Amino acid sequence: QVQLVESGGALVQAGGSLRLSCAASGSSISGMAMGWYRQALGKQRELVATISVSGSTFYTESVKGRFTISREVAKNTVYLQMNTLKPEDTAVYYCWSRVFGRGDYWGQGTQVTVSS
Fold it and tell me: How many CB atoms lie under 10 A from the CB of residue 69?
């Protein structure tokens, strides 16, 4: 069993920065592929960023160059650093993980609101 808990969501002005955290329990993140999804009000959930077990990263085009996903194994935590935030980044952000032999796990989400 893996549990994911997001934190760090807030109200921020356009152009500002925010760092989201995803604390995992039940297994070491060193053995997980992890990532962030987001879902804006009335829209489908979309992939934002992923980081593989090997450390390779992927970003959706709309956040590339502005967002950075990273890991801190000692704290069993994954981060999403978000810079130059735009109103269109407003959404609930969800942490995701995939564990070999265990399938997918999801956090409960944290709200990010960017005002113009």
Answer: 21
Within the chain, strands assigned E span 3-7, 11-13, 18-25, 32-39, 46-51, 57-59, 67-72, 77-82, 91-99, 103-106, 110-115
pLDDT in tens, 23-68: 999 999 999 999 999 999 999 999 999 999 999 999 999 999 999 9
Residue written as tokens 């959404």?
Answer: 91
The type of residue at 49 is: A
Neighbours of 114 (CB within 10 A): 20
pLDDT tens readout for residues 60-91? 999 999 999 999 999 999 999 999 999 999 99
Question: Among 88, 86, 64, which residue's Cα sits nearest to residue 13?
Answer: 86
